[in-house]
Amino acid sequence: MKVSVNELTVSYLTSRLTEGKPFAFLRYGNGEWGCILRAAVRTGSGSHTLKPPALRDGLVRGIRRHQGVSNSYYLGMQSLSYLTRVSLLSRIEDWLSKRAPKSVWYGADVLHKASMKTKLNPMIQQLRKMRVVVVGPKWLRKLNEGVFGYVGFVEVPSRDCFYQYKRLKTELISKLDKQTVVVFCAGPPAKMMISEIYEQLGNKHFLIDYGSMWDPYCGKHSRRYHKRITQAVRRGNLKS
């Protein structure tokens, strides 16, 4: 099957936040597919292992459990041109045709592109009004210094956080006593956690996989594209 990627806009996701309509957004990129297809042993950044069979199984369930069109569970696919360049797209399409032919995909980079184009401000403004819990590495604690506040922080190891998966998931669930926006920045394990929490708690919370997007807002440039998040871009996105 040929993968078709549908449009999912940041304005639409922001409107869901504003209207209190929960959703889950999971981003599958070359790291996740490298794990599923057994094509890599670590993510491109080197920060996460892709070896554990349980991680692969969790990523697969995240796709297969929720097939077809959904208005609250969105599967994001990384740029098809990039996946072609790294020789993964044809293998992904073959895998999907056999194991998840009814899966529906949306652009995974919608939030990152909005950040680079200084179009993230409406979402940040809305996050500032909501109950937020962050799941990410220690440097993201700085998000409450002028980006948005949070009521809880689940700190993940900056390397191979999957090995603490059970503890991290238990800690997060303990903080979900009220409707919450969960900001996930935890690599491939984040997709597995989003899928399981969505299944366990139903459509009650906003479960958003932001990947490394917030790093440059906290003084951490962990990806090459972060050089495009200049001081002017940050100011534009963070203005009150």
Structural description of this entry:
With 240 residues, the protein is α/β, with parallel strands linked by helices. It has one domain. The protein is 38% helix and 13% strand. The chain is built from 10 helices and 8 strands. Helix 1 packs parallel to helix 7 and helix 3 crosses helix 9. It starts with a strand and ends with a helix. 39% of the residues are buried.
Descriptive labels:
alpha/beta; 8-stranded parallel beta sheet; 240 residues
Termini separation comes to 45 Å
- Rg is 17 Å
What can be said about the biggest beta sheet?
Answer: 8 strands, parallel
Helix content: 25-40%
Question: How many structural domains are formed by the residues?
Answer: 1
- The run of helices and strands is EHEHHEHHEHHEEHEHEH
Based on secondary structure, the structural category is alpha/beta
Low-confidence stretches: none
**What is the count of β-strands?**
8
Shape assignment: globular
Q: What is the typical, i.e. mean, pLDDT?
A: 95
Strand order of the largest sheet: 1-4-3-2-8-7-5-6
- Helix segment tally: 10
**β-sheet strand percentage:** 5-15%
